[in-house]
Amino acid sequence: MSVIPNNHVATSISSSSCTFLGQHKLSTTIRTKNVWLPAKYTGICKCVATPEQTAYTTKVSRNFNIGKLQAGYLFPEVARRKTAHLLKYPDAQVISLGIGDTTEPIPEVITSAMAKKAYALSTREGYSGYGAEQGEKPLRAAICSEYYANLGIEADDVFVSDGAKCDISRLQVVFGSNVTIAVQDPSYPAYVDSSVIMGQTGQYQKDVEKFSNIEYMRCTPENGFFPDLSTVSRTDIIFFCSPNNPTGAAASREQLTQLVQFAKKNGSIIVYDSAYAMYMSDDYPKSIFEIPGAKEVAIETASFSKYAGFTGVRLGWTVIPKDLLFSDGFPVAKDFNRIVCTCFNGASNISQAGGLACLTPEGLEAMQEVIGFYKENTKIIMETFISLGFKVYGGKNAPYVWIHFPGQSSWDVFSEILEKTHVVTTPGSGFGPGGEGFVRVSAFGHRENVVEACRRFKQLYK
Ligand SMILES: Cc1ncc(COP(=O)(O)O)c(C=O)c1O
């Protein structure tokens, strides 16, 4: 790796690198081949392709839609900045409360089931190869009865997967390039980026920091982080995440009823991301299928990642009710099944053994303990920022604290916190223009690191 001058931040920007960096005016280094250039020589962090010159190029043109992406995916960009910071301060005790990756060990009741499955694979009796693409029946049944009991969902509506993010992309493949989408603004970046890649959008509009042809549903403290649907244009697909990443806000029953009615009125499909449902403290719906009529307009995607520490193991699921039909009456689930069979060969059998263990009484208790640990972290972070006089949102129903820095650029705040406290956060603008002026602090961390980070925040903002 090149040696980076001390006063520069290495962003290692390759082709199509930075929606989120676009407005960032800090001292930034742009790498063209192996040369590190301070941003002042290139203007502010310009989002231009800088292809390496090679002796040979193929005759294959680059996917035009991928070329529209203005940014490296947000979290790799945050990770790159952390790496650059470590190069600058090799002795710094950097604490990461940024990316939202889990840190606590997977409970043994779950790993022992996976170990048993792994060992069984080395016996004739216990070996299994490709499994059902949709997931093993007992796991589909266990997910159905644990999370969707009495909601009219059946085990064969549940498709087990290698994670919610992967399912979001597979759903986009099902929808194709001719649909329009709406997203909460701010929102988890996978919805917008997969939409761009599928060709559902126009170009990135630098002035408003949005892609054309996407409906950005503004979620702010003023509207309680629930969009004013009377101002939202009709789209085919509505991505909606509750509890939300990054704001931590969860939608109430009344709000979700409005959303379902809105979708029904417009003939839209909701893709409801409930990856954090088990973090909910308020008595709000944990599934969109708790709302009457949702089965005709909604898909739900969920994950073991943040419940059981499965971010690396990889296991999630998507529910597509039989009642959900395309305009020609064809069941959406049948097309999803086709994509799953074509693009995916089913989740790992070891992961699925872990998933089944998660849903035993002991496993559920163990997951609640993991979640409780992170919720305690969330409380510590919330209390810290509240005591410092900040307006703080989220936290109660999700492992994210959404902190307002009015009038400041999110990337500037991110950089200042990193520079002065060696703590990695996530800049709110990385989740969409509605996140500008906010920073997300994740509660995924070892307790001593969270406590230490909060001590440093108190020093910085006292
Ligand atoms: C809202 C949301 N959906 C989906 C995911 C991805 O989940 P998985 O690890 O199951 O792919 C995340 C991960 O951070 C998330 O925040």
From TrEMBL:
Keywords: Aminotransferase, Pyridoxal phosphate, Transferase. The keyword Transferase applies. It comes from the Eukaryota. Its cofactor is pyridoxal 5'-phosphate. It holds the Pfam family Aminotran_1_2. The keyword Transferase applies. GO terms for biological process: systemic acquired resistance, salicylic acid mediated signaling pathway. Residues 93-457 form the Aminotransferase class I/classII large domain. One of its GO terms (molecular function) is pyridoxal phosphate binding. PANTHER family: AMINOTRANSFERASE. Belongs to the class-I pyridoxal-phosphate-dependent aminotransferase family. LL-diaminopimelate aminotransferase subfamily. NCBIfam families: DAPAT_plant (TIGR03542). This is Aminotransferase class I/classII large domain-containing protein. It comes from Daucus carota subsp. sativus (Carrot). The lineage of its organism: Eukaryota, Viridiplantae, Streptophyta, Embryophyta, Tracheophyta.
